[in-house]
Amino acid sequence: MRVSTLLPLALAAGTAAASKNGTLGFALGNKNEGGKCKVQSDYETDFDTLKEVTSLVRIYSASDCDTAKHIIPAAKAKNFKVVLGVWYGTRHITSALRQAARPDYDKSFTDDFNALKEAVPGNE
């Protein structure tokens, strides 16, 4: 069977299973095809594409490309939830938390936790 035939079947099966057992989410990258960092409008486009299937995404890096700064307001605008990955290690976690606490940082990160489902420290 061809991949083009299997992929829609797998997605349909996954969606049905998630509907029965919980929420289906997708992992997003923080760069576009050309390697340029995504900004809020790029994430909003991603969310518009996914809205028929899910309203939950995971991103594996909060600090690279100022990801948290761009994805949280996009999620808030599009009514999505984000599982935000923070790279394990004192320096990275401290840096991400310090960045989120800055007065000029996007207020939706600290004032509106509706868009942030959870922050997950990890070292996958």
Helix and strand arrangement:
Elements (H helix, E strand, L loop, with lengths): L2 H19 L4 E3 L11 H11 L5 E4 L7 H12 L2 E7 L2 H12 L5 H5 L4 E7 L2
GO molecular function: glucan endo-1,3-beta-D-glucosidase activity; transferase activity
Keywords: Glycoprotein, Glycosidase, Hydrolase, Signal, Transferase
GO biological process, one term: cell wall organization
For the biggest β-sheet, the strand order reads 1-2-3-4
User: Share of helix among residues?
Assistant: 40-55%
Distance between the termini: 32 Å
Q: Choose one word for the global shape.
A: globular
User: Architecture, according to CATH?
Assistant: 2-Layer Sandwich
Alpha-beta classification: alpha/beta
Order of helices and strands: HEHEHEHHE
So what's the CATH class?
Answer: Alpha Beta
Signal peptide: 1-18
Protein name: Beta-1,3-glucanosyltransferase
GO molecular function: glucan endo-1,3-beta-D-glucosidase activity; transferase activity
Subcellular location: Cell envelope
Structure notes:
The protein has 124 residues and is α/β, with parallel strands linked by helices. The chain has a single domain (23-119), classed as Transcription Regulator spoIIAA (2-Layer Sandwich), CATH 3.30.750. It is 48% helix and 17% strand. The chain is built from 5 helices and 4 strands. The protein has helices spanning 3-21, 40-50, 67-78, 90-101, 107-111; strands spanning 26-28, 56-59, 81-87, 116-122. Strands 1-2-3-4 form a 4-stranded parallel beta sheet. Helix 2 packs across helix 3. The longest helix has 19 residues, at 3-21. It is globular and about 30 Å long. The N and C termini lie far apart (32 Å). The mean pLDDT is 72. Belongs to the glycosyl hydrolase 17 family. It is found in: Cell envelope. Keywords: Glycoprotein, Glycosidase, Hydrolase, Signal, Transferase.
